[in-house]
Specification:
The structure is a single chain. This protein is of the alpha/beta class. It has helices at 3-18, 22-35, 55-69, 89-99, 116-129, 141-154, 192-195, 198-205, and strands at 40-44, 76-79, 107-110, 135-137, 160-161. Helix 3 packs across helix 4 (89-99) and helix 5 (116-129) packs across helix 6. The termini are far apart.
Length: 215
């Protein structure tokens, strides 16, 4: 077996080990129902190819739309800049959410983040500036699990977690909204693969590129 294949399967194993169990997902969802409505949910971005959303982006958007329409959350912050493609992830996701019936007044964007830890850090700072207090991360179980330790050691006030409940996303297959993503595209784009070394990208994943002194 090639070295690359070994690394690939090792990554899959580590990710599967980090994901939340279905029992934990259901427990967190029940807690969200008890604590609702949240002032805002934070939804991390995912790269967009300029043509259509991929499965991960679709799931995150559909879950955020579900939470707002069910009255579990009042507002959404989509987070993510133009990281791997010329499209600002937060802007693209906001366009999809609006196309799915979420009022523009309830959608906010954070475009500075380039890594998951930055998604939640910068979105949390934005939420607090806007006066939101009851804050939750709404994402997939793997990302939720990976960010829990970071949020616990970083923020003074707690952030709740509302990971996907798969049964609630079963409807997503029949939904295919169309958007015009031109407004989300940036000129003179340079991928993070060019602007950041592998080491700096790794540090960013761990939250080490954030300037915490600027809070």
């Amino acid at each position: 077996m090639k070295i690359n294949s070994i690394i690939y399967f090792l990554i899959l194993f580590l990710l599967s080990a980090c994901t939340l169990s279905r029992q934990t997902q259901s427990k967190l969802y029940l807690q969200a129902l008890e604590n609702k409505p949240y002032d805002v949910i934070i939804v991390p971005g995912i790269p967009y190819n300029g043509k259509d959303w991929n499965t991960t982006m679709k799931d995150r958007i559909m879950w955020s739309v579900f939470l707002v329409k069910k009255g579990i959350a009042k507002n959404i912050i989509f987070s993510g800049g133009s990281v791997y493609t010329p499209y600002v992830e937060a802007k693209v996701m906001a366009l999809y959410a609006e196309a799915l019936g979420i009022s523009k007044e309830n959608i906010f964007i954070e475009t500075q983040a380039q890594h998951s830890t930055e998604n939640i850090y910068y979105s949390y700072q934005l939420a607090k500036k806007m006066g939101f207090n009851l804050i939750a991360l709404a994402s997939d179980p793997i990302q939720s699990s990976l960010l829990m330790r970071f949020t616990k050691r970083t923020f003074d006030s707690p952030i709740s977690y509302i990971p996907f409940v798969v049964d609630s996303l079963m409807m997503k297959g029949s939904v295919a909204p169309k958007i015009n993503s031109d407004s989300a595209k940036v000129e003179n784009f340079k991928s993070i693969l060019i602007t950041q070394s592998k080491w700096k990208r790794f540090r960013g994943t761990c939250g080490k590129n954030i300037n915490y002194e600027l809070e």
